[in-house]
Amino acid sequence: MDVEKLGIAGAFSFTPPVYKDHRGLFTTPFEGAAFEGASGRPLFTVGQISHNVSAAGVLRGIHFTATPPGKAKYVYCPHGRVRDFLVDLRLGSPTFGRWVENDLSGENARAVHIPVGVGHAFLACEEGSVIVYVMPGRYVAVDELSVSPFDPEIGLPVGDVDAGLLSERDVSAPSLGEASERGLLADFQLCRDREGVL
Fold it and tell me: For 56-64, what is the mean pLDDT?
């Protein structure tokens, strides 16, 4: 497992070996020992696994969970390909407002760990791209928030996206500044405490 510490505090990517032959491929997108070695703690207790399927050109996010309760995620793409973005939305974080991009695909089997308070977005590059979310708790709609992926202050390189392929929530999402003014963003230390980081 190739582990990379990303440019956002507490975020990592994990790229496992992919074994291919004439039948297809086999890989293991999560290994507890690799996660614990990188982060210094075990992965959260899994409470829910979800996935979505997206048409090519679909942009989803920037999504995050209100803190409290907060929610970390472990995300990978078993089919298709996406440009995956993490955005640090934690007030007071040394990497606040910074984003990192990863290429996630069924071919590379790369996964990312998204810490509590960090936003997530992706742009589907292939038809039928699948994103799997491993999470510590169930989805509660009222806790799920959004920041605009088009906010120039963040500057995600998503290009021209067909507005018809965006959800209503993403179209009406506030900017980073507006989210902060509305009290939607959590403090860096609170997010770390919710994730059990000392």
Answer: 97
